[in-house]
Design a protein that fits this description.
The complex is a heterodimer of chains A (112) and B (120).
Chain A lengths: L8 E4 L5 E6 L11 E6 L6 E4 L13 E6 L2 E6 L8 E8 L7 E3 L3 E5 L1
Parallel strand pairs in A: 1-9
Antiparallel strand pairs in A: 2-6, 3-4, 3-7, 5-6, 7-8, 7-9
Chain B lengths: L2 E5 L3 E2 L5 E8 L8 E8 L6 E7 L4 E3 L7 E6 L4 E6 L8 E9 L7 E2 L3 E5 L2
Classes of the chains: A mainly beta (112), B mainly beta (120).
């Protein structure tokens, strides 16, 4: 099972909006609404930010939003803040693995 | 409040077997739908699922690592144990214990992670 494809890095200035893409296939992202996104600060465990494409867990800022079109899912961070600088990983249900989920390659978000 | 914590050696030699224990609280692995699994992350690299065990003893493994992995649970102790045989330097990384519900397909709780280095 190949990892989902994400851009290596995305950057933006404070207050701007940025979007991170996550590209898969019809066997994963495109075929099911089970895409999730995780934020990981250096030396810390990942934190769930979005699940089932666009749902935010309790306590996650509404500046984070998710969407999907075809085989590509997206995470948008609006009103970018310094604390948003982190690595972000997408994940999706997949029929290609008995573990049923696959992660993306990861994106480093830099706040300029 | 759900918490998970990993424990085990920080350094193992090549060819040795790694045994990691996840001790959790705030839920029971005898509750329908509950699963506990392991995810690892090599330094500077992406996350990778290793194994998952459910309340009903169903188990899933990474296809590429299946021959080297064993996951077990002790419901009475609130623990899940992962063993990985024939360790290699490429297995160096942080190993996370996680909580995931069957049919949810996302990880809602993570342990703090434990760094395992494979070196002679």
């Amino acid at each position: 099972q190949s990892a989902l494809t994400q851009p290596a890095s995305v950057s933006g200035s404070p207050g701007q909006s940025i979007t991170i893409s996550c590209t898969g296939t019809r066997s994963d992202v495109g075929g099911y609404n089970y895409v999730s996104w995780y934020q990981q600060h250096p030396g810390k465990a990942p934190k769930l930010m979005i699940y089932e494409v666009s749902n935010r867990p309790s306590g996650v800022s509404n500046r984070f939003s998710g969407s999907k079109s075809g085989n590509t899912a997206s995470l948008t961070i609006s009103g970018l803040q310094a604390e948003d600088e982190a690595d972000y990983y997408c994940s999706s249900y997949t029929i290609s693995s008995t573990l049923e989920t696959v992660f993306g390659t990861g994106t480093k978000v830099t706040v300029l | 409040q759900i918490t998970l914590k990993e424990s085990g050696p920080t350094l193992v030699k090549p060819t040795q077997t790694l045994t990691l224990t996840c001790t959790f609280s705030g839920f029971s692995l005898s509750t329908s739908g509950v699963g506990v699994g392991w995810i690892r992350q090599p330094p500077g690299k992406a996350l990778e699922w290793l194994a998952l065990i459910y309340w009903d003893d169903d188990m899933d493994y990474s296809p590429s690592l299946k021959s080297r992995l064993t996951i077990t649970k002790d419901t009475s102790k609130n623990q899940v144990v992962l063993t990985m045989t024939n360790m290699d330097p490429v297995d160096t990384g942080t190993y996370y214990c996680v909580h995931r519900r069957k049919y949810d397909y996302h990880v809602d709780y993570w342990g703090q992670g434990t760094l395992v280095t494979v070196s002679s």
